[in-house]
Request: fold
Amino acid sequence: MEQLVGKVHHVELVVGNAKQAAYYYRKAFGFDQVAYRGPETGDPTRASYVLRQGDIWMILTTPLHHLDSLNNWLTLHGDGVRDIALEVADVDAAYAHAVAGGAVGEAPPRDHQDAAGTVRTATIRTFGEVLHTMVQRRDYPGFLPGFAPCEVRGIPTGLTFIDHIVGNVEDRQMERWVDWYDRTLGLGRFVSYDDKDISTEYTALRSTVVASADRVLKFPLNEPADGLRKSQIQEYIDANVTAGVQHIALACDDILAAITALRANGVEFLTVPRGYYGNLWDRVGEIGEDRDRVRDLGILVDRDDQGYLLQLFTRPVQDRPTLFIEIIQRRGSNSFGKGNFKALFETIEQEQALRGNL
Ligand code: FE2
Reply:
């Protein structure tokens, strides 16, 4: 079957103050601000800043009017991901397929036009209050119609593309959403981790990754599992009120340089438990990077039968314990760091306990 959807076109975050959020993502993560839409460009209702680094495109949007329904979204969820927009070759066909497969339509196919050209989009609803807008670009030269180009340069930190985006769904809802992605967008089951793979002494979760045939799109879906204490996924659901996007994984070609730059910019990362590096090299064997620098930067390493990967997770990027960012460099491995789950989740539990949520 021909693939219905291509790569992520952009991720849109709704935030309480897009001007300040844009500053944070520029200064901390090194994004350029490349386009803007707001009152000055003819949209009096919302302000949107478009940020770009490598092939990562993010929109930060804030409602300007107190009656805007986006305020309800913010009241429920706080700052977070509202739309994972996907490139499609034929938006009418992709939308019809998704709706026939059971997707709830948010907006049917329609054209967006400005002097530079036309882009056609349609939008469906996925888990929680998250959307997938399908974008058929044709040959539109800019970002999207209605956005005015601007150029506010960040200092790049070497982030290149979106590797995967993770959704947290409610208890016992994971299989339903795995099935939903198959029926609506043609994403198949790529790999599953059960609560034996992902558990600590206290808490657990289950995860299944759905992916496009070319593996460009990868969406892990997590659900809480029973443990002695509250699952970190349940903490997320409680803070977000519904299912939602837990993390965005951003790829890079030199994670030592990227983490050095991000730390210098003040990005806060999770700290792995003491002892993580004690048996790490026995577990993952030879790597191409300097082991001392990997340890000093607090980077996690995992290996599977195809290669290895290096990864590190930020602390939540807003006050609610919801969205965070992963930095990842793949060296052959196509997996998601299963060997790091236990160490990582013990760290998350330490932070959960500090918040009084464990
Ligand atoms: Fe991840």
